[in-house]
Fold:
Amino acid sequence: MSSKIVITGATGFSGSHVLENLSKNLNDSYRVIPACRNKDKLPKIFRDNALEGNLLNSSYIEKLTKEADIICHMASWAELNGTIEDSTKEFLEPTVNLISSALKNGVKRFIFLSAITSIPIEEDRVHTSLSLEKIWPHYENVIKIEKYLEDISKFGMEITILRLGLFTGKNYSLGLLPILLPRLKTHLVPWIKNGDTTIPLIDGADIGLAFKLAALTQLDKTYNLINIVGKEVPKVKEVFQYLHDKYNYPLPHFSVSFTFAYCIARFMKFVHKFISYEPLIVPSIILLLEETSVNNDEAQKILNYHPNVHWKDSIDIQIEQMSREQISNMRMNKK
Structure:
């Protein structure tokens, strides 16, 4: 009997790449079922098989988990400047309900999309005394879900958490580049620590590959926490220099420490509560630039994951799409 792999958020950035990758070289061992709010946004070949609905609806969650042997949970609520209330309602609560329903209905494996950002947080290497809720409310909930999944794994459902690098490539949605590039043009964005920290970019195609491997690979342990990044991990200054040389984006004119950057970002976030324009920088963006010191060693060992897309090629793909489709600057939250 073939395994049924349900992909939540199948029309989003990461979900679309997972759907595309799992649908290549299909065989009788598994069947792919996209789940999304609007199946008309899917490629036509996937619409007849789709589960259309909203994860805020408990009946939909019940239907979805009864269909699935494996769930790739790609649906998210990635606000960089949102509130803990919105993230809890739109992301934490439905995700916890989905996990609980998956356990109850006998789903064999649950694969969760997390981020490399968890590493400096759990290792207490973040350069501020601010609580995570004040730095990035949404990520407070990501950490809660990671911990909940670790507890759930003790009850028999296989859990794999993939901590991904920063998204680049086609089908982009909210991400660091669409937020950062317009701000570079202002000449006000500084280096942080002289741009010497690494920035673990990953192309959507490699995200799709990683999730396909996580869904189909026979695993030795019930609980797996795996870092997933691109083919090469550049430093921030390498990325900015590439953007400058090829696309003429200004280089920063001065450098500040992480501690000072968090202070400025927090001040800007406060000030912009009283005006309509978005802040130049917010604490969550600083957090994304913290050093992660990450590699693919465990991913190669456990999943035989070998990424294919170089970060320069991925940036080229995304900037080309941005030049065609992005009419105005991307907002950091959904309201």
Remarks:
- The first helix runs from residue 13 to 22.
- The radius of gyration is 20 Å.
- Residues 3-325 form a domain with the Rossmann fold fold (CATH 3.40.50.720).
